[in-house]
Amino acid sequence: MDKVFIEALEVDALIGIYDWERRIRQTLVFDIEMAFDNRVPAASDAIEDTLNYKDVSRRVVDYVSQSGFGLVETLAERVAEIILDEFGVSQVRLKLSKPGAVRGARAVGVIIERSAGRAPEGISGLL
Ligand SMILES: Nc1nc2c(c(=O)[nH]1)N=C([C@H](O)[C@@H](O)CO)CN2
């Protein structure tokens, strides 16, 4: 399947589990890959036929900059949900990096892959 991607999208947000983290904003970095059949816009050369990476980026920035979760896991899940639900994407791979959170590491974070449809058996009530 073709992809549309957004690489190294930086957003300042309230994130983290420690008291000191609740008083500052930290820069988060998103790498996002979205399944999309790019043959359609390639044939029409029309922006309306694309999965518009500018629209997705703007929505992610708006949401993340107003969020305030403790865990990167929670934020990654919510952003993946928005992309699947609001942009008609069938599959998304999302890497959320928190640079400088751990001394000695350039970045830490999570990578998730989600598909449109039901949550796995057993955790649907939690999500
Ligand atoms: N798997 C995770 N581990 C940790 C997280 C997290 O969100 N997911 N968060 C922290 C702290 O907020 C840390 O980033 C502060 O340096 C620790 N571990």
Automatic annotation (TrEMBL):
One Gene Ontology CC term in the entry: cytoplasm
Top enzyme class: lyase
GO annotation terms (biological process): folic acid biosynthetic process; tetrahydrofolate biosynthetic process
Catalytic function, reaction form: 7,8-dihydroneopterin = 7,8-dihydromonapterin; 7,8-dihydroneopterin = 6-hydroxymethyl-7,8-dihydropterin + glycolaldehyde
The entry's keywords: Folate biosynthesis, Isomerase, Lyase
UniProt keyword Isomerase, yes or no: yes
Keyword Protease set for record: no
Record-listed E.C. numbers: 4.1.2.25
Pathway note: Cofactor biosynthesis; tetrahydrofolate biosynthesis; 2-amino-4-hydroxy-6-hydroxymethyl-7,8-dihydropteridine diphosphate from 7,8-dihydroneopterin triphosphate: step 3/4
CDD domains hit by this protein: DHNA_DHNTPE
Dihydroneopterin aldolase/epimerase domain location: 4-114
GO molecular function annotation: dihydroneopterin aldolase activity; isomerase activity
UniProt cross-references to PANTHER family, sorted A to Z: DIHYDRONEOPTERIN ALDOLASE 1-RELATED (PTHR42844:SF1)
Role according to the record: Catalyzes the conversion of 7,8-dihydroneopterin to 6-hydroxymethyl-7,8-dihydropterin.
Family: Belongs to the DHNA family.
Protein name, entry field: 7,8-dihydroneopterin aldolase
Organism: Lysobacter daejeonensis GH1-9
